[in-house]
From TrEMBL:
The lineage of its organism: Bacteria, Pseudomonadati, Bacteroidota, Flavobacteriia, Flavobacteriales. This is Helix-turn-helix transcriptional regulator. The chain crosses the membrane at residues 6-26, 38-58, 70-90, 97-117, 137-159, 180-201, 213-235. Gene3D superfamilies: Homeodomain-like. GO terms for molecular function: DNA-binding transcription factor activity; sequence-specific DNA binding. PANTHER family: ARAC-FAMILY TRANSCRIPTIONAL REGULATOR (PTHR43280).
Length: 382
């Protein structure tokens, strides 16, 4: 089997898997319809793009459709960016303004219009024969690469901002989703870097066999990426828990304050902190695994903005860390209590407000420098 045959087989596998999973995403009943449809569209574009290595075996594609197929990847980065937004923000909806993300695709299409789309068949054949030598192609490639870089940076910015908001507002915040989306962006960077290298190689070297070897490696990486993406989506539905896009980081709230926040330091702030700490010790709201800063503000009968500034600015802690500190102290009290030796670690973590063993162990080690089991053994031997 020659290199091109291997490339065709891998490409067919990618198209088959992507198409099958896209159908599933479009038809499955779920609350995450927007996210599912965006990632399905993303996979379909990948499938259409890579089908070029085998579709000619089955059909004779008109040159106009072939050119459109070659430009379709300009929509993949915008779809990935919108997918990230839809996974993070609960109030995300597709709007007309999002059509602006298709501008690079439309610009590229317009650039090809005079010398390709509006030309006769003979001119189109000539265009394809000297494809890489055409200035329109170079322009399209440059636009595509600039676009990918911009969206990669934009995704990193969104992830950083949303992670900060989540830690400032939710006691059961998990960074697993952000880690997954971060990994998705890193993999996109790797694929982009490899694709860029392949494109440069095509411009400087006309060795067809070597180009096909590079394409095989690229196709295999794409296949691995799609399989990884599918497994993540299927096995981690909890990643689709989202936040309100209207929530802003505390630093943004402070920046909009008419009175500088430093001028509000004083007796009033100290009293609010004392009241907050007394409420945490007396009422133990941290035992609620779904406690949010809004819940706490309602209990204290204070505006959520003030409570957020109080914790995240004056106490210099994320709400997530602030609550977990009380949870861990409660867990330590149980672990060192000889009358509660029968409590398992799993029972304790649920008792104090955690909802997963991994997050409990991570938080406990952060505050106690040892695992819960080690802490229990250590205190029982004292």
């Amino acid at each position: 089997m020659d290199n091109y045959a291997i490339l065709s087989v891998i490409s067919f596998m990618i198209v088959f898997i992507s198409s099958l999973f896209s159908i599933f995403l479009f038809t499955v009943k779920t609350e995450n319809k927007t996210s599912n449809r965006l990632i399905a569209a993303f996979l379909i574009i990948i499938a259409i793009d890579i089908s070029s290595f085998f579709y000619h075996i089955f059909i004779d594609m008109p040159m106009v459709l072939e050119m459109l197929r070659m430009d379709l990847p300009l929509l993949s980065s915008p779809l990935e960016y919108l997918f990230v937004l839809s996974v993070i923000y609960s109030d995300f909806k597709i709007k007309r303004i999002h059509l602006l993300h298709a501008i690079p695709f439309l610009v590229s299409t317009l650039v090809f219009m005079p010398r390709f789309y509006l030309s006769n068949t003979e001119a189109r054949n000539s265009f394809f024969e000297t494809y890489l030598d055409n200035p329109e192609v170079l322009f399209s490639i440059i636009i595509g690469h600039i676009q990918v870089i911009i969206y990669i940076v934009a995704i990193f910015i969104v992830l950083k901002k949303s992670k900060k908001v989540m830690l400032e507002n939710f006691s059961n915040a998990t960074t697993a989703k952000h880690k997954w989306l971060f990994q998705l962006n890193i993999i996109s960077i790797i694929l982009f870097a490899f694709s860029t290298g392949k494109t440069i190689f095509k411009f400087i070297n006309d060795d067809f066999d070597t180009v096909n070897i590079v394409r095989i490696i690229m196709a295999f990486l794409v296949l691995c990426f799609i399989c990884w993406l599918i497994l993540k989506v299927l096995y981690h539905p909890e990643f689709f828990r989202r936040i309100d896009s209207k929530l802003k980081p505390v630093e943004n709230i402070i920046a909009k304050e008419e009175i500088p926040i430093e001028h509000k330091e004083g007796e009033e702030v100290k009293q609010q902190i004392q009241r907050l700490r007394a409420h945490m010790l007396d009422q133990k709201p941290y035992l609620n695994p779904t406690l949010t800063i809004q819940n706490l503000a309602d209990d204290l009968q204070l505006p959520v903005r003030e409570v957020s500034i109080l914790i995240n600015h004056h106490l210099n802690q994320h709400f997530f860390d602030f609550v977990n500190e009380y949870r861990i102290q409660h867990a330590k009290d149980i672990l060192q209590n000889p009358t509660k030796k029968q409590f398992t670690i799993l029972e304790i973590l649920y008792e104090v407000g955690f909802n997963s063993k991994s997050s409990f162990n991570t938080a406990f080690k952060k505050y106690a420098n040892v695992t819960p089991t080690e802490y229990r053994k250590k205190t029982n031997h004292v």
